[in-house]
Amino acid sequence: MTHTQNRPNADLLDRLLERADNTSDASEYNSLMLGIAALAGIRIHYGGEVLRCSCICVCPKVFDNADPDARTIEVSAGFNLPIRQCPTCADRHPTPDLD
Fold first, then answer.
1. pLDDT per residue of the chain (99 residues) written in tens, 0 to 9
2. Pairwise CA distance, residues 50 & 33, whole Å
3. Going by DSSP bridges, is the β-strand pair 62-64/71-74 parallel, antiparallel, or unpaired?
4. For residue 92, which of 65, 68, 56, 66 has the smallest C-alpha distance?
């Protein structure tokens, strides 16, 4: 499931995603993911991940990383969050799939 956000929520989501991407603490990461999911209106299980679409079309969607229709754009070296396209972008204009 994907969602778009209004600007205040989008700004908060961006800050939380950046914090999750840079933390080295697994408990903090999981807590941030649960908070981001709740803010975005996406249900995930503990240990799940929520991502913002990384497509070149600058898609504003937030999605559950466990969605089988999402596509990996590139390997994320040195960060926690994978670089992936949401299912909509993966269907409309897919990038190379590294999965």
1. 555 555 557 789 899 999 999 999 999 999 999 999 999 899 999 999 999 999 888 888 899 999 999 998 887 777 888 899 999 999 998 876 555
2. 6
3. unpaired
4. 56
